[in-house]
Every structure is written in structure tokens, then in C-alpha cells.
Amino acid sequence: MVEHGDIRVVRRGGSKINFRQPVITNDSRLLLCASGHSVKVFSTSTEECVHELRGHTDLVTGVVVKPSNHLQAYSCSLDGTIRLWDFTDGILIKTYDIGYSIYSIHTSAFHKGVVFTVTSTISDKKSESFQLVAVHLPQSGDQLVKAPELSAVISDVSSNPGAIVFGRGGEYIASANGLHLEVFFFKKQKTYRFFLKKDTKTGGKNTFMCVAAHPKDDCIATGHEDGKIRLWRNFNHQKEYTYSTLHWHSNAVSSMCFTPEGTNLLSGGVESVLVQWRYNDVSQRDFLPRLGAAITHIAVSPDGALSCTSHSDNKITIIQGIKVSAVLQGLVTGESVETDLMVDPRSKALVLNGKPGHLQFYSLKRDKLLYNLDIVQQEYIHELGLQQFKVVKVAFDASGNWMATVEERKQKDAEQELNLKLWAFDEQTQSFVLNTTVADPHESRITAMCFCQAAASQTTMLISASEDGHFKAWQLRRLAPGEDDGPSCLCDFVGAYRGLVPHCCCFSADGSLLAVSFQEVVTVWSPASWELLATLSQPPKAIRNLCFGRLSCSKYLLGTTDDHLLCCWNLLTCSLEWSTSMDISLLLGDPLTENIAAFCCHAGSTDLFVFKPSEPRPVFSLKAVCSGKVTHAVFAPREEMLESCEESSQWLNHSQLYFLTQCMDLMTFTTKAEEEKLMASSKQLLIDDSVAMTPFYLLLGKHRKGESGAAASGESAGRPPLPQGSGAVKELLRTPAHVLPSTSFLCSMFVKSLLVSVGDARSVESKPAEEEMESEKEEEDSEGDMESSASRPERGSLARRSAEPAAPPLTKAQLRELRRVKKLDHSWLTGLLRS
Amino acid sequence: MGEFKVHRVRFFDYMPSAIRAMVFSTRTERLALARADGALEIFNFSDNYFQEKVLPGHDGRAVEALCWVGPRLFSAGLNGEITEYDLENLRPRYTVEAYGGPIWTISVNSQGTLLAVGCEDGTVKMFEVLKERIQFQRNLDRQKGRIISLSWHPSGTLIAAGMMDMIRIFDAETGRATHRLLVDRGAGASKSKEVVVWSIAFLSDHTIISSDSAGKVQIWDGLNGTLIRTHLITKWDVLALSVSQDESSLVAGTSEGTVVQFQFISSTVDRLDKDWVRTRTFKNHSHDVRALAHTETAVVSGGMDTQLVVRPLLDKVEKNTRESAMRKVSFPHRSLVCCAKKAGLLLFQFPDHLELWRLGESDGYGKLGGSLPVKRGPEKLIQLKRKGEDHICCSALSPCGGWLAYSTVTSFRLYRLQNGSISICKVSKLPKDLLPAHQLCFSTNSSKLFASSSNSSVVVVALNELECKYLGTLKAKYGCRQPVHQLSASDNGKWLATANTDCEVHVYNLDKLKLHCTVPVYGSCPTAMAIHPTTSNLVVVHADQQIFEYSLVKKEYTEWSRRLQKQGLHSMWLERDTPITHVTFNPKNPAHIIVHDMFMFCIIDKSLHLLCVSLLEDHSLVVVERPLLDIVSQLPAPVRQKKFAT
């Protein structure tokens, strides 16, 4: 096995923004939140991500604004460092190395040069306990500083940052853990501990969930598991302390926060209602209901104008007064992703279950939620134990014109309700529109569903396999504008095999074969005639996954079984080519290459193998990718191809592999080169401090640099000048409009930049344009389809890529020929020849 | 030990009366409690919350307010009278008409010299407390509208009065009103309704705290007459207020059955200025909390649901001790049931009538622990209504079932029951010495009746078919003034033991009609006692759950009793919160003592050295049950509250 040091597993895109409490800056314009391995800076008014502060090498576990300088912020991470950032410009100022994993960070104005962090106690690892440690940050000019001075303040604290809070100007710190509350007074160096019983007679559960401290009075509010809020007073007496109880929440209070003046207390929980209690008159309260999902964190801006709530569906809501003013939505990965990960071929967005009854389209490139599509189209009722419609399956056809969804509702004793919905892409609204609803398409739940991935014809075929022992083929037809009558969806064929339950189904790449697995038997059908061509079987255990090989390997069909066997059948000989024993939880084929990725569960962690079915050696393997089983993964095609020549990382050139870990974190693989590229773009921010850092500057600065570089190296290397103009244009177009200077100011420079090297730019730019036109024409000729433009550039680039290294100056005719050859898929032939 | 037949009696539908008012005296550590039927109860808080005395009610007397003046107890009611009570003879001492219509409140100044009463006609009347009586002194300025609540400033110069829609502050010397504080009405529909200031408290720093029918507790500055803060604590009425002795804590009782505590706390640790902050909420009642008392360590509350709840404040007592447990007193600490052992009859005592029942019979031999087939159901023989307006104070049924006696505070009646039949006739000729009694008891052979009367004396009357004859009066030593609340005659007719509320236990020799001996005085009040039929040992159970056995022959504690004291009782036994109300002996096994309290039966086996605590049956044992749920179901409906998820 080959270990590849330069490929790492990282979080990129789609990470949680609700992991820790967000921070609103003093001027209420920016919001900072920990997101995966970086800190994201959002604008509170436009919801746009302004900066991403990259630098930590592990999960960021806390962000706080530096009390002595409100333009800087500390962040801490599990990698054992605290980093100080200038968050308005996105510059890393300093890195303090602590040496221990940090779980949260707390600061107060009362303590200058000291931050408080929660680290795990080293003594025993089994029962993890945490302690609060004061870290004295040394004053030094260096970028990387070691902070050796640590002193323990409170032992046995909770790792939840919401359970530790500074009170009244930092004079004391309160920490709640389990069933006890601890208050430490810094001046007197005295600790007071208060204990509660686990359960009361009336069924109350007293476990502390979160703590908040009044900014002016000595009053600590604690939230409890049964939804009570206790306001503790007089806690500088071990015996004569007292508390009052507020009760509105019916479930655990997950977060609380006092407003800066201490007039209100905000609390939230599973009810997804923000409750505002008047501090002086707790019988009066205001509610902000229907926030969508359970509240996990609450934060208030220092001027009290804004408050924000984090929600369990990876969302941050910014609230002005008692009204929602902005919503920052991240990728929603609930407890279960029943639909599996999908990629929309048109928008290249990741598609999966989002809000209950919805599908979310998430752009991984921009790390932004594109839109939510309401599939179920029924009101979701927030009540425990209620059975509601769930989207369980989704499939896209190759062009992205059709989408099929399955929703089901399991009633307690009544039978299952199933709906198969077909959605057509509407060019005008740029979204999917419900085309057909098939109520009860099968008698039992649907186990698998797939579209015929072959090049689009007039009709598209959808296969659905169900537990009732049948699989059905549906013919989809897009209605011409004139004809109104006639169904657009017809059940074409119902197939069964010996009354067994079909479990997986899969189309070959060219759509000429359909493989359906019936328990331990794989049947191969011809969709054209609905003939059963062959049966392949590998008893005794049932087939778990099925996957056809692609391109040069398309004669192979791969399958995994429940008894940890990976089998590869040769479809030409209808015999087993090879098999190996592996506990594979997920088998996935890259749609653009021959590569097949297999996630293999081994000893509590998951290994990844990437292989070609025709080659015995895996292309890539990585041990211990993550702990737990990986059941959801997807190959997302890259927008721009990576030029990596290393053998081990070549499989990442065409597409990226994303997967969901057991704790529903979206992870991906990255190469060193890719990482360096990303770092370089963020490092650029540090180049020149003398000029104000605006996106416009960045654009022009890069331009200027490129220009000078080109001028310097122009003669010596003889390299043609780069098309800076197009780069600048791209940059210009990608930058949000609100951060750009006025158009009139830009225009002249922009035009000039285009003028500088007009000849070269034209020659490079016009060529792809021409090519595209060509390919369009060609497709029109052959199929007469107008709609498959989304996938076309990809295919064009593919062809170009394969052509370029061989002979760069190919004629158009040659190109066309080459493409046609490529399209015809001679893998069958090559396979035949080889065997 | 399962060798008993049990009669489970569930037809005693005793209904306690609602608690109307209560007042706590820190000097004597006693709580006086008034019920809606006019009965008064005195609880001794220093002696395990034992119900020491019960003063029976009176038809025309509805007590609205109570007041301790030193050891003297005064009450005032809607009949417009002020009554002082004779706590030694358990009866009203005298009554003074206030001539101001119904009286809503009574309050004494801290010096104990002046009583102020608030009347329906809007006057506050001052009465001077003299040694033997009270005397009207004067009226304060007459107001429009009734005076609902009164509170003296601790200096005794000012008095605050809660009225309809307002609070007035009077100068107690001149009688002039100095301030008029207007109380807001409730919001919404109740805007048109007058707000009633149900309760008021005047603190030494001139802070006035009021509670009213709009659900508010308001804190006022009494010097300037300004409102400092309003706490809205309920949608309904806040009926009662009570302030702790050191004025650092305050409780308010609401119609929802909750008691809300407020504390006087500084807002930050190092500052001195304090503020009243709402802190805890106790919910121990299902109905209105009408009366409250804030003792040093606990909050005592009572109301329409007839229970007295003692809720200790955990910051004032040691945790996990007997003091830190909550107590609920729902039944009187004395027996209201009398059982004629030989005749199988039961006598139930109600405030206004007596019921005589015959127990059911069964001939079958059932399985151990199973229920027997009933041959003849229980039968109600007689319902005897009392005469006069006074409520029944005590009653007794002779063991043979032939005699029935009851007493009110003014009269004593004896009835002759014909054997087995339903005829009853009053014995008209009674000896003159037979005065109204506190406690009645028949001898085992039904030939003698013992009636305790004033000064701890016991009158002995001989009964036979023709007449009843006065035999003599048993007198304890001189100076015993407390009433006798326990009487117990031995089976052989030789001994009679009496216990009074001064914790003294006297044993008399009935042959000589003379004091035989006095059991050494123990610091806690006896709650039940009995003389063993064969060994003539006296078993006494005290309010602090201690058990003593005293040999009448040797006039000393028995060996078992000494050993028990040395060993100490089990903490589970000591932590029970209801006193033992009855002691009997197992006739089959003389070493077994059977005791019961409100919740459980218990056999104490003397041959074993530890207490064997077990639920028990007896071969003609009668268990009278009164499920609390039945009482709750008979209460009027509580105020409507929106409950979550209903």
C-alpha cells in the first residue's frame, strides 16, 4: 500500500457555522463565527462572507473579540494555538502556541494580557474532564510566540463554552457543570460551590445547561435540562444564597444571554423560540417564535442593537430588536441524510436533505446555500414523535433536466404512504418545477432509484426498485408547448426476479445495460427490449452496492456484498473477474474517470481506496480517513481542472471527493499543491500594508504585479504575456458588487487593462469560444437537443485536455473527429482485445 | 405476624375545615390557627409541630383574624366581636363588641399595649390591653370604605391600613391620616373592579409592602408615600403576606396556591443598598393560600385545601435533617374515632354530630393477605346531632356499647344505648360536679366514666342501670393548670393515667382515688399512652417520637425502656413527621405493642431489641381510613389556571 503524505482530509465548504457562539463586533457591522478550520467574518447587513480567516490546522473552538482592542479577535483551536487576527482586513497578527488542545476561550476587560481557556486535564484520558486555565500572553513582537505561563483557575468544568461566564466586569467567573455551579471571585480568590439534586420529586431535571451573568448586578442565570431558568443571587454566601425560578421552556434551555445593559435576558432552546425576559419584571416576556430550528447559541452585540441566534440546522439568524433582519445559512446536515449526497449536474451544487421536507442546493465552490426546494409541500409540525413526510430518495438525470424525488411517511399501524415526484428544470425560473406526482408508485418502500445516464434522447428513463419485489421503469417525456394532454410519465416496464427484493439498481454509462441486484443475485437487463441478459450471483450474502465501470473499464460491474466481499464481474464473459475480501461500506464511481472509490470500514475507522477496476494496484489509498463508518460520499466535478502530475493525486484532478463522517461533518481531500494555492491567495493580503486593503486594490495590485513580472521575464523566457485582462475581469465579476468602487472610476482602468496586450488576449480567448460554438453546432446536428449546455463545456474541456498534450495545433476537423471517437466509447472493444 | 382480621373502615367521611387565619408567636414558639368553622388550634413548633390544643368552634363565630399579645390570644371576626381565649380551659374567656360592623383585621403594636381593629364601616378602633380585659380607647379618622388590613410600624407611632383601592397611613397618637397611597387597579376588564388591599406590612425602615386583589405585591416608601416597585406575581388575588422577624425575607400567598418569597438583597456583593427581589416560589397548595406565617426557619402556609404546610427554608436549616423536611398537617393529632371493643361499634366525632356504626361481619376463613367475604355490611345505627351552638369537643363510647358521652365547652351529655338496638335515651340526672370536659374515657368494664376538667383534675362517675353517681375528683398536685388531653384506664380497673399539655403524666390509683405516682417529666408532649393489661406498665409515646415504658408497680422506667434509650431509636423512625396517635397491645403476644400514626401501623416487639417496623393486622383490628383524595374531591373548585399542554 502506498501512503500519500501530501493528500490530507480537510473541511472545506459546508462546515458548521453553529458550532460555537458567534461574536458581533462593536460596530455591529461584522459577525465572526468559527467554521471548521477557519473563522468566517460575515457582514451583518448583506449576509455576505467578507473574509475567511485561515490558519488553524484543526477545528476552531472559539472566537472572542480582544477586550483591549475591539478591532482584533482571538480564536482558539484544537491544534493548541490561540491566534490573534485583525478581522476587518483578515490578517493574522500573532500566533500563541499553548501546546494543549483548547476547547473554548473566555476573556474579560478586567484581566489584561490574560485569556482563559478550557483544556482537558492530562491526568486521565478515559473520563475526560476539563479545567479552566488562565494563559498569560507574553508581550513580544514575534509572529509565533510560545505561551508557557498557564495557571489553573477552576478544575472540573464543562467543555461547553456556554457553561462558563464572566460576571460584572470580570470580577468573578461562574462555571456550571453537571449538577453544580461554581463561582470564583478573583479579588478574594475564593470559590463558592452550589449543588442541586439530580431530579426533583415533581420530575424536574436540574442538570445545568448554560450560564449567563448580569453585567451590572451580581446575578447569575442558569438554564436547566427541564427548561427552568434560575436566577441566583447572594452567591457570595455559602448558605444564604438564594435563587428564583423562571419557567417557560418545555425542554432544556440551551443558551442564554443578558443584554449589555442588563435590562433583558434572552433564552432559547429546542422550541426554536427566542424568549426575552425583562430583568426587573420577569413576569413580562416577549417572544420571537418560528425561528425554524432549535436554538443552540445566543449572542448580543456590545451596543445591544443586534442579537443573533445559532440554530441546529447550521444557521445564524441576526435579529434587530425583535425582528429577524438577516439569515446566514450553512449546509444543513441533520441527524440523517437519507437522500445521500448528490450533485446537481447543472449547477454543480451539492444536493441533500435540508430543512424537513426540503432539498438544499449548496454550492461548494462558493460555500453558500443556493436555494431550498420544497419537495413535500406540507407544513412541518415541530412535535416530537410525529411521523411526517420525509424525502428519502433523489436522483438527477445526466443533463440536469429532470429530478426525481421519493417521499415517504410511515404511519404507526397504517401502511406506508409513498410519493414519487418528478421535477423538470424550468429555464425561466432557473429552478425545478413539479412536473408529475405519482402517488404510491410501489406497494412498499423504494430501495433504489436511478436515471439512465446516457446522452439525452427525447425520453428519459427512471428506474425505481422497491421492497415489494418489483422494479419499475418510468418513461419521462417533456411535453412540447403545443400538446397539453397525455401523460408525461409512463410506467414502461415492471420487472421482478423470483420474487426476491431488489436492493440496488445501476445503469451502465452508455445506458445500454441495467443492473438490478436481487438479494445475492445481480440481474442484467437490456432497457431497450427489457430482456434479462444475464444473472450474476455471489452467494451467500446479499449485494450491498452496485457500480458499473466507466470509460475504458465499462465492461466491468462491481458489487459489494454483506459478507465483506468486493466482486468485479466481467460483463463480456459474464464471469467473476476478481474478488477481494473487504468490508466496504460505500462504493462510488467517479462520473468523469474510470476511478472507483471504496470506503472500507476497518477497526472503528474508515479507510479509503481509489482504484481502477482493470488494474490490480489501487491508485490511491489512505488509512484512517476518519473514525466511524462513512455511508455518504460524492464525487463533485471540479470547475477548473487541477494540473497535478503526481500519480497518487491524479485521481483528484477531475473531481473532488466529498464525504460525510459519522458526526455529519462534510470532509474532502486536498493535495498539497491545492492547499498552497489557497494559502497563497490569502497570504497576498499580507503583502503591502501601506495601501489600504480593498478588493479593488487586490485586483489591481495583482494586475500590476503580473504586469511587472511579465515585463521582467518577458524577454528572457519568451513566454507569451498572460491574459491578465481576463483574470482581472474574472476577479471583478466575482467580487461582490457592494465592495467595488463606482463603475465610472473602474471603467477606464478596466478598459485599459484590456487594451494592453490585445493580440495575445484575443488569440487565447477567442479559441475556446470558437470551440464551444463548434461543439454546440455538432450536438445540434446529432441530437437536436438544446438543453444540455450545462454539461457541455465540461466535456469539451475533457476532449481538449486529452488532445492538447499530444499535438497542440490540432485542426478543427481533427478535433471534431477526436471528439466523436471519444464519444463512441470503444472501451468494449479494447476490453475485448485485451481479453 | 399476619394473624389479624382487619376491618377496613372507609365510611368515616371526616372533612376538615378550611384554614382562615394564623399567627405565630416567636416568644412562645406557638402557632395559632383559625379554621372556617371557628375552631382554633395551637401548634407547638418547638415540640415537633405537635397540635397541642384544640378549641372547638362555635356556630356564630367566624374568625377572620388572630393576634397574640404575649401569651394571650385574641381573635376578631365578621360577627363584629373581639374574643380573648382561655387557653387553659380551652374556651373563650370573654367577648367585646366593637360596634363597627364586621371586623376584618386585628393587629397589636410591638409594645403589646394597644390593639387596633379594622372595621367594615371604615374605622380603625383602638383597644387598650389591660390585665384581665381590653377596653375601647378611641377611633382613628373614619374613612370611606372598609379597612381590610392593618399593620403597625414597629415604633408604635404609625399604623398603615389597607382599604379598597388605597392604603392609608395614620399617626397612632393623633389619629390623623398622614398619607394616602393609591393602589392601581388591574388591567383590562378588571379595571372597573375595586382593588382590595388584602394584606399589608409596615417595616421598621418605613417601607410598606402591600398585596392586593389585582395580583400585585407593591413596595412603597412610607415616609414619602411613593411607590418603589410593583411585582405582579399572579393573575388572581394575593391574599396573605408575612415578613420574617429580621425583615430580610417576605412571603406572599396567592389564590393559585403558590407562596412567593421575596428577599431583601443587595444587588452587588460589596454595595450596601438593598432591594426586594422576588426569589423562590413554593407550590404546595391546590387552593387559595389564606394564611401565612414566616418563622425563623420556615414558611407556614394554610388555606382552602385545609392542610397546614410547614416548608423549611433550606438556607436557614441544616440540610438533610428532620428540620429540612417539609411537613403537611392534614388531620388532627388526636383520635376522632372511638371503638367499643366488645360490642363492635364505632363512634365517629364530627364538629356538629356524632355517628354510631356497627362493624360488618364475616364468617369465612380467607387466605392470608386476601379479603374475606362480607356476611353483613357495616350499618349506621345513630346520627346524633348536638344541641346548642357550640361544637363537640370530645366524645366517648363505653366498651360494652351501652353508654355514649360527649361534651361541648358549655355542656356535658350522657346517653344510654339499648343493647344492640337503635334506641337511645338521655341520662337526665347528672351529678353537678360533672362539668364540661376536655377528654372522656370509660373504664374497661364500662362501670366508670372519667372526664377531665379544669386544672388537670379528673372527675370519676360510677355508672349503672339506674343512676350515675359521683365518686370523686382526682386532683394532681397544686399548680397544675394545663388541660388534660390524654386519658388511659387500665384493663383491670385499677389505674388511670392522665397526660396534660405541660408534658406531665400522672397515674392515679382508682381504688383509693388517689395520686399513685408521677412519671418523670420529659421535655416533649405525650401524644398517646396505654397501660399494659398484664404487666401494668405504662407505655408513653411523645411528640418527638420517643417511646418510654414505665412500671407502675416499681415506679420506675423498665429495663426495656432504659435499654431503648441507651440504644437510641432508628433515624427512620425519628424522621417521621406525624405523631403516634394510638397505642394498644396485642392480646395474643403481650410483648407486642401496636402503635399507629396517620400513615402507618407498627408493631414494636419488645423481645427483639430493635424496632421492627411492619404493616400489621389484628384479629379484630379496625383500620379507619380517610384517603386525602376524598378530601380534595370535596373541596370547592380552585381558581382556573391555564396549565401547559391542557
TrEMBL record, chain A:
Please give an example of a GO cellular component term from this record. small-subunit processome
Q: Which SMART domains match?
A: WD40 (SM00320)
What Pfam families is this protein classified in? Beta-prop_WDR75_1st, Beta-prop_WDR75_2nd
Q: Which UniProt keywords apply?
A: Nucleus, Repeat, Ribosome biogenesis, rRNA processing, Transcription, WD repeat
Where is this chain compositionally biased, Low complexity type? 708-718
Q: Where is the composition biased (Acidic residues)?
A: 771-786
Q: Where in the cell is it found?
A: Nucleus, Nucleolus
What GO molecular function terms would the record report?
A: RNA binding
Q: Where is the composition biased (Basic and acidic residues)?
A: 792-803
- GO:BP terms for this protein? positive regulation of rRNA processing; positive regulation of transcription by RNA polymerase I; rRNA processing
WD repeat-containing protein 75 second beta-propeller domain: residues covered: 341-664
Q: Which Gene3D superfamilies match?
A: YVTN repeat-like/Quinoprotein amine dehydrogenase
The residues bearing each WD repeat, given as ranges, are: 53-95, 201-232, 246-277
Annotated stretches, region: Disordered: 708-727, 761-818
Primary subcellular site in the record, as a coarse category: nucleus
Matching PANTHER family? WD REPEAT-CONTAINING PROTEIN 75
Q: What is this protein called?
A: WD repeat domain 75
TrEMBL record, chain B:
Q: Which Gene3D superfamilies match?
A: YVTN repeat-like/Quinoprotein amine dehydrogenase
Q: Which GO terms describe its biological process?
A: maturation of SSU-rRNA from tricistronic rRNA transcript (SSU-rRNA, 5.8S rRNA, LSU-rRNA)
**GO MF terms held by the record:** RNA binding
Known InterPro entries for this protein?
A: UTP4, WD40/YVTN_repeat-like_dom_sf, WD40_repeat_dom_sf, WD40_rpt
Entry-linked Pfam families: WD40
Domain of life here? Eukaryota
Q: Which SUPFAM superfamilies does the annotation name?
A: WD40 repeat-like
Indicate the secretion signal residues.
none
One GO cellular component term: t-UTP complex
This protein is called UTP4 small subunit processome component
Organism, scientific name: Gasterosteus aculeatus aculeatus (three-spined stickleback)
